[in-house]
Specification:
single chain, alpha+beta, four-stranded mixed sheet, two-stranded antiparallel ribbon, 14 helices, 6 strands, globular, binds glutathione
């Protein structure tokens, strides 16, 4: 039995829960609030989710948690055996984790119906014992999230349309994929599907405004969210694509133009010691976004995966990884040292939040 500290409304808790259900791993969902001291001491950072094994060890960060759990399964892996397809899956997981986060927070907290629904649910779930009226708890939550993760993360009148377009583009690409097959890369879910469940399950598929957009524009994606939630490993060979098709290529192009461009700017800012920086993504200028040491580590991990590929896999991938953004994967000019988890102990490391101590400062 795994103890998972998180929330029924949390992005990365949804990703982990989908995986645990897929593998039929028993877990108990516990609140983070009220257990902060224990979590901080055991896991290094208070974030959702963190998990505790029966032997007392703590696990942090959904990406290494999934990798660690999956390596222990006596069943076909969610990481594709083909090295090129494995890289595609890892890149899409990171794009889902770190790029779609901004539109997910924007839709949740910028739209009135969404923020009142979510703040009410979070107030009940997380802040129950706090001696304040429910309305006051909701106001506290809305202020923290809106100023921290929306306005504090570069969403302004100038960038809002681009932020929303990021969601719509993902929906369009995924709708094309799910018109052809059940999961992103074939007949079984890979880590790319689990990664995309982060934004798609608890935010876009559940918050009123983006969920209505999903139902109208991409009913195939809406059905895939339910399919993923209900998916159980069968033990059969995964039946994945022999190579990237045009539908996945469209998503990869978007991931390069957005997420890899963001990782490049973030790494450059980190090297220069900047706590905030400007970035231009697909022609849209974001001012003073917070620099993330955690995302420097994400880039290091992707670069490590790229460096481990043989020439055949690289040749298969290069046409789908457009420059100049994808250069960040192989060009040493973009290398930046996070100094995070140097002993490679994740998910049993001392974790850090994506931004400083939680919300951007
Ligand atoms: N990289 C981590 C990110 C976890 C994370 O940032 N979770 C959010 C909630 S979904 C959180 O706890 N944010 C901290 C805060 O709001 O202070 C993972 O993949 O698990």
């Amino acid at each position: 039995m795994l103890r998972v500290y998180g929330s029924r409304l949390s992005y990365y808790t949804g990703k982990l829960e989908t995986y645990l259900r897929y593998r039929s791993i028993d877990y108990e969902l516990l609140p983070t609030v009220g257990n902060e001291r224990e979590i901080l001491a055991g896991a290094g950072a208070v974030q959702m989710p963190v998990a505790k094994l029966e032997d007392g060890r703590w696990l942090s960060d959904s990406t290494p948690i999934l990798a660690w759990l999956d390596a222990r399964q006596d069943a076909p892996s969610i990481y594709p055996g083909d090295p090129a397809l494995r890289f595609v899956a890892l890149l899409l997981e990171d794009y889902a984790d770190e790029w779609l986060w901004r539109p997910a927070m924007h839709y949740r907290w910028s739209f009135r119906p969404d923020r009142w629904y979510v703040s009410g649910a979070l107030a009940d779930e997380l802040l129950g014992p706090m001696p304040l009226p429910r309305f006051a708890k909701q106001c506290l939550l809305i202020r923290r999230q809106l100023w921290g993760f929306v306005r504090g993360d570069g969403v302004t009148r100038a960038t809002r349309a681009h932020v929303e377009q990021g969601y719509l583009t993902a929906l369009e690409a995924l709708e094309t994929v799910f018109a052809r097959r059940r999961f992103l890369l074939g007949d079984s879910p890979t880590v790319a599907d689990f990664g995309l469940m982060g934004p798609m399950l608890r935010h876009f598929g559940q918050d009123p405004t983006p969920a209505e957009i999903m139902r109208r524009r991409a009913p195939g994606v809406y059905a895939w969210v339910a399919r993923m939630w209900n998916a159980r490993a069968t033990g059969k060979p995964p039946g994945l694509l022999p190579a990237v098709d045009d539908a996945v290529a469209a998503l990869l192009r978007e991931a390069c133009e957005t997420h890899l461009a963001q990782l490049r700017e973030n790494a450059a800012a980190h090297t220069r010691g900047l706590t905030r920086h400007d970035m231009t993504i697909q022609g849209c200028r974001y001012a003073r976004v917070p620099t993330s040491r955690y995302r420097v580590w994400c880039l290091e991990e992707l670069r490590r995966e790229w460096a481990a590929l043989d020439e055949r896999a690289r040749d298969a991938l290069r046409p789908h990884l457009p420059g100049p953004h994808a250069d960040v994967l192989w060009d040493d000019a973009h290398a930046s040292a996070s100094g995070y988890d140097p002993e490679r102990r994740a998910p049993f490391h001392r974790a850090i939040n994506v931004f400083g101590t939680g919300v951007p400062r």
